[in-house]
Records
---
Amino acid sequence: MFASETKVRVRYAETDQMGVVYHSNFFLYYEVSRAESIRQLGFTYADVEKMGVIMPVVEVQSKFLRPALYDDLLTIKTVLKELPVHHKIEFHHEVYNEKKELLATGRIILYFMEAKTMKRTTTPGELLKKLQPYFS
Amino acid sequence: MFASETKVRVRYAETDQMGVVYHSNFFLYYEVSRAESIRQLGFTYADVEKMGVIMPVVEVQSKFLRPALYDDLLTIKTVLKELPVHHKIEFHHEVYNEKKELLATGRIILYFMEAKTMKRTTTPGELLKKLQPYFS
Amino acid sequence: MFASETKVRVRYAETDQMGVVYHSNFFLYYEVSRAESIRQLGFTYADVEKMGVIMPVVEVQSKFLRPALYDDLLTIKTVLKELPVHHKIEFHHEVYNEKKELLATGRIILYFMEAKTMKRTTTPGELLKKLQPYFS
Amino acid sequence: MFASETKVRVRYAETDQMGVVYHSNFFLYYEVSRAESIRQLGFTYADVEKMGVIMPVVEVQSKFLRPALYDDLLTIKTVLKELPVHHKIEFHHEVYNEKKELLATGRIILYFMEAKTMKRTTTPGELLKKLQPYFS
C-alpha cells in the first residue's frame, strides 16, 4: 500500500451560496493530492506527460459527509491499495478538516494512455519502480 | 419516470491541457441539467431555496467514456427513476455529443435540508405535486 | 462597429458564499460571448484554432457594479469598435440582468499567434473578411 | 507600504487546451495571495466576514505577459501601496514562475461593505491597526 497526505486551503472561489465548498471542487483537491503523492515518490505527473503518457480520469465516486468551509486547511489522504500493473490506476482519497472530521471520501480511476496514439498503455516503468517497494 | 434534456456548449475554460473537458466540469453540466429539468416542471431550484430548503449533494458517481471537446454542443439527459418521497433525491445523467456518442454517465444523490436548522426534510410539497404525474 | 448579444444562465457553481457570482467568472461569460459573436459571423473560434492560430488573452479590465445572482439569465453584449488589422483584437463587454440593470463591464485584449511558432500573427483572412462589412 | 508573498502550485484543472493557465484563474491566485497577506498580519479574511463585513471585488485589471504552466510553483507578490482609510482597498499583484520570470500583473479594488445592510463601510478597526505600522 502506498499512502500520502497533502494540505489544501479552501479558496473563496470554491465556495457556493450555500456557504460551503461546491461538491465538484473536491475532485480538484483529489487531483492536487494525487500530484503531490507522486511528487513524494520523487517523480511528477508533469514528468509522466513529458514521457508521452497521459492519465485521463475514467471513473469517479465521491461521498460528501460534512461541509468544507472557506479558509479550512484540509488534509487530503491519498491511498493506492494495489500496484498498477495494467493500464488502470485506482486512487482512494479522504478529506479531513482541522478538527479531524472526515468530510469526504473519493475513489478515482485513471487510465495510462499514449498521448500520440490515444491507446491504452501500462504504468511508465520509472513510476512503477518507485511504487514497487510499497507493495512487497 | 421523469426525464428531460438540456443543451450545454463546452466553454474554453472547461478544457485542460489534454485538450478535453476536465472531468470535474461534468458535474457542472449535470447541475445545469438538473436545474433545467426542474424549470421544465414550472418550478426553479432558486424557488426551492426561497422556500428555505437547500439541496446539498451527498454522493456522486460518474464514468467518462469519451472526451468532450471545446465548443461541443452537448446534450445532457436527466432522469428521475423514483419519486423522491423521503429526504433523498437521485438523478441519473447521460451526456451525448452532436454525433450522438455517449460521453459520460452520472448518478447524483442530493438531500433536502432545511436551511435554518440544517436538518433533513422531505421534498417540498409543490415540487412533489409537479413530479407525481410522471410516476403514476 | 460589430456588436452581438448572448444569453448566459448563472450556474450554482459560479456563486460564492457572498451569495453572488464570484468575480472571475465574469471572464468566462465574456469568453462565451466572444465565441458566440464569432459564431454569428458564420465562423467559430474552434475554426481559428484549426487554422493554426491561437488567441491568448493578454490584458483584461472589468468593473463589477451590481451582483449577478444564481439562475439570473444574463445578457452579455460584445462590441468590436475597431477592425483588428494587426496582431491585436480588443473586445468590449457589458453584462445585464433580466431587469436590464448593468452588472458589469469588461475590456479584453487578445493576440493572434501562430500555435506552432508562438509568434504574433495577424487576423486570419477569413475572419477579417467576415468582419470588414461592419467597419465600412 | 505593506508587501507579502505567497506560493501557489498550478493545478491541472486550471490549464486549458492551449496548454497554459486559463487567464481568469490568475484572479484566484490573486485572491489566495490577498488572503495569505492578511493572515501574515495575524488576521484572516474569514475573521473580517465574522465581523459582519464583506469585501466584494469592484474593479480588476490584469496583464498576462508569459504563460503559467501546469505544476509551476508560482510566487504571487501582493502589495498595498496606501492605507485603506475609506471604504476602498486596492491591491497590486505580481506573479513569477520559478525562473523568476514575471508572468502577470494585477490590480484589484475591493469595497468594505456591511453584510447586513449592504452599505459601504470603512476598514474594520482591528485590520487597520495591524496595517498602520507599515504606513508610518
---
Amino acid sequence: MTSQKIKEGDYVLIYLNPRKTYLVKVEAGKNFHTHKGFIKFDDLIGKGYGCTVKSNLDVKFVALKPLLRDYIMKSVRRTQINYPKDIALIVMFSGIGPGSCVVEAGTGTGALTTALAHYVQPKGKVYSYEIREEFLKVAEKNLKRAGLAEFVELKKGDVTAGIEEKDVDAVILDLATPWLVVPHAYDALKPCGTIVSFSPTIDQVVKTVEALKENGFVDIRTVECLMRQMQVERGKTRPQTLMTGHTGYITFARKATKTN
Amino acid sequence: MTSQKIKEGDYVLIYLNPRKTYLVKVEAGKNFHTHKGFIKFDDLIGKGYGCTVKSNLDVKFVALKPLLRDYIMKSVRRTQINYPKDIALIVMFSGIGPGSCVVEAGTGTGALTTALAHYVQPKGKVYSYEIREEFLKVAEKNLKRAGLAEFVELKKGDVTAGIEEKDVDAVILDLATPWLVVPHAYDALKPCGTIVSFSPTIDQVVKTVEALKENGFVDIRTVECLMRQMQVERGKTRPQTLMTGHTGYITFARKATKTN
Amino acid sequence: MTSQKIKEGDYVLIYLNPRKTYLVKVEAGKNFHTHKGFIKFDDLIGKGYGCTVKSNLDVKFVALKPLLRDYIMKSVRRTQINYPKDIALIVMFSGIGPGSCVVEAGTGTGALTTALAHYVQPKGKVYSYEIREEFLKVAEKNLKRAGLAEFVELKKGDVTAGIEEKDVDAVILDLATPWLVVPHAYDALKPCGTIVSFSPTIDQVVKTVEALKENGFVDIRTVECLMRQMQVERGKTRPQTLMTGHTGYITFARKATKTN
Amino acid sequence: MTSQKIKEGDYVLIYLNPRKTYLVKVEAGKNFHTHKGFIKFDDLIGKGYGCTVKSNLDVKFVALKPLLRDYIMKSVRRTQINYPKDIALIVMFSGIGPGSCVVEAGTGTGALTTALAHYVQPKGKVYSYEIREEFLKVAEKNLKRAGLAEFVELKKGDVTAGIEEKDVDAVILDLATPWLVVPHAYDALKPCGTIVSFSPTIDQVVKTVEALKENGFVDIRTVECLMRQMQVERGKTRPQTLMTGHTGYITFARKATKTN
C-alpha cells in the first residue's frame, strides 16, 4: 500500500477525539503542546499519514491528513460562521464543479472561498471580493494552508458597487446587504448562471428575494438547514443535547435571459 | 455576452415555477406536452439558454441549462431517495474533489453517483457497485444524460463480498447493510481515507458505528440534516407547512493506520 | 374494576390504528360505516369503554373514550389549524389552570377553546370572541360534543375593537392581526396576567412583539415548536418521512404594572 | 382594578430580562442580592404584583407573580430535565384535567409533579413514586413553594415492583426502565386510561413500545419535540443560534380492555 509520508512543512490534523483536533504545521525539532502532553514533530516526520503517535504523557493521538472540512472548520474565527453544512448546500445549489468560474463576496476569513476553490480546481477560478484589508490577509493565509491559493483571486473592493467579471457560472454572496449586489450579479452571470446568498436574518432574505424577482432571476428558493449530531452507542443512542439552532438562510436563483 | 445555444439532442430544464420543471431532450420537429399546453422544440433550437418560450396556450416557460441538482432530482425514481441536501453533506464529509478516486455502493438509480462523478471529474474516477442489473441500466442512462458516464465504472457485484479497488480516497455507502462493507472499505481505502454511510434507520447506524470502531476507523460522527423551505413574501414570510421529516442518517469516519 | 359503560348518545372514538380513528355518536339501532365494514352501535351499548368490537367484515376496532386531544383533532376543519402541540404549549405558557378566567379570540372552530375550557373547568371561564357567525355555530357544536360548553361564553364581536372583561388571567390570540388587540389585552388583564399569541407568519410576530413592548408587557418570548413522529420497531426504528414543517409561532408576554 | 398585593412569605419572580429571573421568598427586613445590586424586600411588601422595583444600583426589576412554568423551571436541578415543552405535551397527551387521578414515577425534583398537580387540582390527585429519599425531600419543598403539595401524595417506593392505586386516569413515567412498569400500569389504569413515558434514548423507546404492544395497549405513538426560540426585532429577526437539540422522546398509549 502506497502510504503518503508526513514531511517538514506539512499541515497535519492531530486527532484526539471528534471534539479535540488540532491543525498544525510540522516543524522539525519542535514540539506541539496539548492539554494531554506534548508531541515531538520529529516523531511524525517520515511516518505515514494515519499513524498513531504518543504524547510525553503517553496519550495516543492520530496524525491525519486534513480534509476540506478541517480547513473550513479551522478557518473560521472572527466573522460570521459558515458551517460545513451550509457550505455544502451552497456548493450543491450553485451547480459549480471542476472548471467553474465563480464570484464570491465577501471573502471573510476564506472558509467558503476555500471550499469553492477546492471544487473548481484545477482549471476553474474563484474571484473573491472583500472590502476589509485585514480579512484578505487572513483569507490568503488560510487558502495557502489548504494549498488552494492559486485558484483564487482575492480582490479588495466593494461588490455592491459592481462586479468586474463577466460570463461567470455562479455568484455566491455572504454579506450584510446581498440585495444591493443582485443587479451586478445579473450582469456578471452567464445565462442560466446561479446566485446563492447566505443570510442570518429573515429581513435580509425578504429584500434579496424581492431584488431577485425584479432583476430577471427565476427558480428562486430559500431554505434553512438544521443539522443534529447523534450520540451512537448500543443501548444509549440519542440525539445530542446541544445543537446549533440557526446559522442562516440560503437563497438560490438562476438567471433567465430578459426578453424584449 | 457569449450565450450558449440550445441544440438538437441537448437536455433542457423546462421551467414553469420552482415546483414544476421538466428535464427533456430536445428533438427537432417534436413537441413537449405539459398541463399548460405544448412547446415546440423547434422554437428552442438555436435560442440561447435562459430564454423564455411560450406554449401553444401562451403560457411562459424558461429553457434552463440543467445543473447537477436537476440531474439528481430527476434521477431518483424507484429506490431510496438521496436528497440533494444529503448528497451535498456526503460529498463535503467525504473530502473528495477533482481527481479523487471513489468507491460507491449501491449505485441505485445513480443520483449520488452523478454527484460524485461531477465533483471528481475530469481526472478522478467513481467505481460504483450494484447487485441489481436493472438499476445499473437506469443509472447508466442517468449518467449519460448528465454527460458524466465516462468518469464512472459501473460494476455489477456484491460489495459485501469485497472491494476490488485499492488506495481509494473515499468509500460511500448507501445500502441496507453498510456494516458488512466496513472491513472491505478499510482495506480499499488509503490511510486517512474516508468512509461515509447513509442509512434511514437508527439500527443500521448503531451497527455501522460499531463496525467502524472495531475496524480501525477514527473521528466517527453521525448526523442528520433537516432542510426546511421558506415561503418568502413581504408581509407573509413563513416556513412551508410541509417538510420532509427524515431521509436518513449520515455516518462519517476516517481510516487510521493500524499499529502493531 | 369499575368499568364505565357505553350508552346511547355517548361520543365514542372508534379506533382502527393510530392513523384511522372516528369520533362518532352512539345511536341505537344504527350502524357506523368504515372502509373496513360497518359496526352496529347496538354491539357497543352496554359494553365497557376500551372493549373490542368487530365490523361485519370481521375487522377489529376498539371503542375508546375520547380524550381532549381527540376532541381537538376532530374539531379542526375549515380554519387555521392549531395542532395539539401548539395548544399544549399555549396552555403551558399562559399559566392557566382550574379556576382561571381566560379571554380568547378568535374562536374559529373551537379547537383551542375546547382545550382552554377543559383546563379551567369547573369554576373557571373562557370568553371567546369571534366575528364570523358561522364559526360560532361550529364551535358551539364542538364544545357541546366535548361536554365543555357550560364553561365557555361564545361572544360574537370584534376583539380588535375592545375586550369587555376585566381582571382576566390570560388573553389567548389566534387571529390575523394580534397586534391590534394588544392594548385591549393590557386593559383586560390583571397585573402579571399573560398574553399568548399564535401566528403563522414572521411579520405578524414582529408587529405583535413591537406592540407588546410599547404597551407595558415584559418577559416577551417567541418560540416555534417542531414535532416529529417516530416509527418504532426493533431493527427498523426511524423518524417518519413526512412531517409538518410549520404551524405557527407562539409569542408570550406578561403584564407589568405601568409606573408613573 | 383589584391588584393583588405582595406580602411576607410570598414567592415572587424577580424579573430583569427573559434570561435573568429569580424565584425568591419575601422576607421582611432582608435584602435580595443580584449582580445588578440588591433589592429590599420591604420595598415590595404591600405593593401590587407586576410593580417595578429598583435595586440600590438603580436597576429596574419587575416583581411578577410566578406561573406554573416558573415553578417548573426553578424546580429542575439535579436530575433529568423535563423542559416545559415536554411537560406541556405529556399533560396534553395524557388527557388529564381537573379532577383526574394520576400516578407518576419517578418524582425526581418534582417538576413534572408540580405540573400534574396544577392541572388536576382541586379535586384530583397525583400519586408520585420515587425510590430515592433525597429527591422526595426536594420535590416536597418544590411542591410547597408552588402551593400544590396538598394535591400530591409522595410515595417512597419502587414502581417497577407494582402500583398500589387502581382505576387511575393516567400513568406518567420518567424513569430509566419504563418498560418494567408497563404491566403494572395496565393493572392500575381504568379502561381507556393513558400511559405517557418520557425517555432520552431510542433504546428505551423501543423496549417500552414493545412492552405496550404485549400488554394490551393501543394507539401507541412516539414523538419528539424541538422548540426553537426566535430573536424578534424589526430588521434583525432570526431564530436563536443556540438551541436544545434533544431532551427526550414521548411515548403515548391507551389501555384497551383485554378480550377473552
---
Amino acid sequence: MSEEKLPSRAENFSEWYNQVVLRAELADYAPVRGCMVVRPYGWALWENIQASLDQRFKATGHVNAAFPMLIPKSFLEKEKEHVEGFSPELAVVTIGGGEVLEEPLIVRPTSETIIGHMYSKWIKSYRDLPVLINQWGNVVRWEMRTRLFLRTLEFYWQEGHTAHASYEEAEEETLRMLEVYTRFAIDDAAVPVLPGRKSDSERFAGAQRTYSIEAMMGDTRALQAGTSHNLGQNFAKAFDIRYLDPNNQLQYCWTTSWGLSTRFVGAIIMTHGDDQGLILPPRLAPIQIVVIPIFRNDEEKSVVMPIVERLKNELASFRLRVDDRSELTPGFKFNDWEMRGVPLRLEIGPKDVQNHTVMAARRDIPGKGGKTLLNQDQISSQVTTLLDNIQKSLLHRATTFRDEHIYNPKNYEEFKQAVTQGWAFSWWCGNAECEGQIKEETKATTRCMPMDQPEGKGTCIYCGEPAHEKVYFARAY
Amino acid sequence: MSEEKLPSRAENFSEWYNQVVLRAELADYAPVRGCMVVRPYGWALWENIQASLDQRFKATGHVNAAFPMLIPKSFLEKEKEHVEGFSPELAVVTIGGGEVLEEPLIVRPTSETIIGHMYSKWIKSYRDLPVLINQWGNVVRWEMRTRLFLRTLEFYWQEGHTAHASYEEAEEETLRMLEVYTRFAIDDAAVPVLPGRKSDSERFAGAQRTYSIEAMMGDTRALQAGTSHNLGQNFAKAFDIRYLDPNNQLQYCWTTSWGLSTRFVGAIIMTHGDDQGLILPPRLAPIQIVVIPIFRNDEEKSVVMPIVERLKNELASFRLRVDDRSELTPGFKFNDWEMRGVPLRLEIGPKDVQNHTVMAARRDIPGKGGKTLLNQDQISSQVTTLLDNIQKSLLHRATTFRDEHIYNPKNYEEFKQAVTQGWAFSWWCGNAECEGQIKEETKATTRCMPMDQPEGKGTCIYCGEPAHEKVYFARAY
C-alpha cells in the first residue's frame, strides 16, 4: 500500500475511485488495453457476490450450465436488433490452429444466440418447459472508454436464460429475477437500488422489455447494476425454439435473459467508500473482522497473543484475519485495513488483557464515535450485533443520500439544475425525441420507470405533452 | 432419454462413452467443431469437483483471482519451449471493435505468461513471497481430434500459479499440489490414480519437472488426470519476476503451475460406469439419492406421498431428488436414474407404508444383490452407511481392476503383449530414444515414474541397458 493520501471524493471522485481499486488491491490493469486483472481480494468479494446470487437463483428453481465462449459469426446475424447492437463491440477469432477459419468466431459478448441454438435442440414438448438455466462466465465487449470493474473489455458475470410456454410466464420470470437482484443489492450489498423498466431506446438489443436496477453512486451519478429482459419470441423465432403444446401444436417459446456482472463491485465501492478508502458491507466482505494485536516487546506479545488466539477461535464462524505482521506498526495496519474496507477492527493490547476487554472500531464511523470497548466474554454475540448494525447503517446512509439527491423539478429549468446535483424524477411523455433532446442538452438519460408509479397523470418535463409515467433521469456511468 | 440400449463397454467402449455422456445429459456437442456444452447435470458434477478442490486449495493457503483471457501474442514468444509447445494450438483474435488489431491477441491456452507478467509487477521483496494464487476459468486449445470432456477446444479448469524464493520451496509446492490432486481423486472421486513424474518428452512446455496423476480407465487405457509443474526459473527469467532478498540482492523467483480440468469428468465416467450407464461416487454425485414413489392409483398415491415427504425431510442433509413425474412408469424411472448414475435409489410403495419399510437399491450392485429393505426409522443413518459403502466399494473395485491390469513383463515380447491388455510397469533407461521406439512399435507411452521406486536397479525393457527407475507404460487417451 502506498503511504500517499487518497484524493478526496469531493475533490476528484473519479481519481478517488481508481486509487481505491488499485490500493485496496481489488484489481489491476492488464497488459491488454481495457482488460483487468481481478486480484485475490477483489475476487474474494466477487465470490461472495456469486454465492449470494447463486443461492437465490437455486432457490427460485434455476440450475447452472456452461455454454461455449466461441460463437459462429452467422449466429449473431440471426436476430436483427441483436446484431446491430453488438456488432461494433465484437472480438473476432479468425485464426485457429494456424489456419484461417472458414467462418470467423465471435468471442461471446452475451450468449442468447448460442443458447437459443441449443434450446432449439433440447426443447421438444411443453413438458420440457420451463427451462431455467444460468451460467457464470466471462464475456468480451470491445469498449472504447474503460474503467476497472465499471466497463472493461472482458468482464465476469452471470447470465440467466430461460424458456417458457407463454408471454405471461416469461414476464413473470423477468420480474422475479429483477426482484432477486433488488433483494440481493439491498439486503446483502446495502446498495439501495431502484428497480424499474427501461425506455425503448435503452432496451437490450433484441429484447421486448428490459428492466434494470439503478443505483446512485457517491457522486450522485447513476449506475445500471443489473438487467432482466423479456425477449418475447424474438430469439425463439430467430433460432427456432419450439415446443409441442398439450394439443400437439407447434408453438414458439417465450424467452428471457438476465445478468449481473463484476460491475457491481464498482457499485459497492462507489456507494459506501469514504476518503479513507473502501467500506465493505459485512455480508459480502471477504474479511469481516481484522484483529490487530498491540504490543511493544516480547513480554507484552507473550501476554497478548494467547488472548488473540482464544478470541480467534471463539470467532471462528466469522471471516476473520489476525494481522500479526511483525515489521509494521499498528498505525500502519489501521490505515491499511481501513483502505481495504474491513467492516470491524478489534484491537487487543496488554491493558485489554488486564481488563478483560477488546477495543472494537467500526469502519463506517471513523474516529472515536465508532469505538466501543467490549468485554471479552460472549464476544461472538457482541460482534454479531456490531456487524448487523454496520450492515444496517450502511444501507440507511446510502438510502438517505439517495433520497436527498432525487429531485422533483417543477419545470425544465429546475430539471437542468437537478441533474447536475442528483437525479430528477419527472413525468415523461414516452417520446424518444424528448429523451434524446434531454440527453443532448443535459447529459442525463432515462434510467428506469419504477413499478410503483404515482397516481394520476402529468405533463412531460420537456415538451409539456400529457405523460402517464414518471422516470428517473440522471447522468450515468 | 432414448429407450434404445447402450452399446456394451466390452463391445465398443468408445461409443459406450459417447452415448453415456449424451444420454445422461452431462454434455452436448456445440455448433463449433470440437466445443462442448456442459449441461446442468454435468455442470453440477463439475461444481462438486470444484468445491472439493477449492476447499483443499484454500486449506493449503491458496487464494483465487482472475487473469484476462486475451494475451498479447508477443507474451507467448518470451519462453522458447512454451511457444513451441503451444503455437500449433492457438486461437487468435485479430479483429476488435471492427478494426484489425495491431498486435493479435491469443485466447489463453494456459496462463503462465500473463500471470508471469503480473507477478513481475507485484513481487518486490522476499516478504511478498510465496505468492499462492489459483484461477478457475476456461482456456482454448485448437485440438484436432476431440471427445466430449476428454479433449475439447474450449475446456474448463483451474490453474494454480505460485512464486517462491527457492528451488526447494517450489519443488515442495509442486509435490504438495500433486498430493492434493491424488487425495481428491482417491478420497472424493474414488479414482485410484497413480502419481509420479513425467519423462522429459512428456514434460509441460516450459517446465523443469512435470508430475501427473494417471488413472486407468475401464478399457485399461491411461488418462492423465491432473498435472503439477515445477517451472524452475524459466518463466521468472522470461518475465523478469524478481525479488529483493533479505540481503537486498535481486533474485529471480522460482515458479510452479498445476491444473486439473473438466477432463476429470471423463475419468469418473470411464472409471466407474457400467453397461447401464453412469455410476457416480456419492461424494461428488449431484444427486446422491433418488426417491421413486410407487402407486397405481390416487388412493395409493395419497397413502405413499406423505411418507415420501416425511423421508425427504429427514434426509434433507443429502442431495436428494423425488421423481414424482406422473407420466412415467417406475420402470422407466429406474432405468433413467441408473443411466444418470445416481448412487442410491429408494422405492416406497403401499406395502412399504404398511410395513414401515423402504426398499434401497445400490447403483453399484445391479439386481437383487444391491437391494436392502430398510426400516423407516433412523433412515438417515442407514442411508449414510449405504452411501459410505458405495463410495468404498467403487474405490475398491477400481483399485482391484487397476492392479489386475498392471503387468511386470519379463521381456519386451511380454511387454508388447502387456500394453494391449493393460499397463506395463517396467525398468527404463531414461533414454528418449527407447521411449520413442516403444511408442512407435506399441502405441504405449510413458505415463509416470512413481515416487515409491523399488529397491535396486534393473535393465531397460527395450535396450537392456542399466536402468534406475521403473515407469508405467500404457496406451493413453
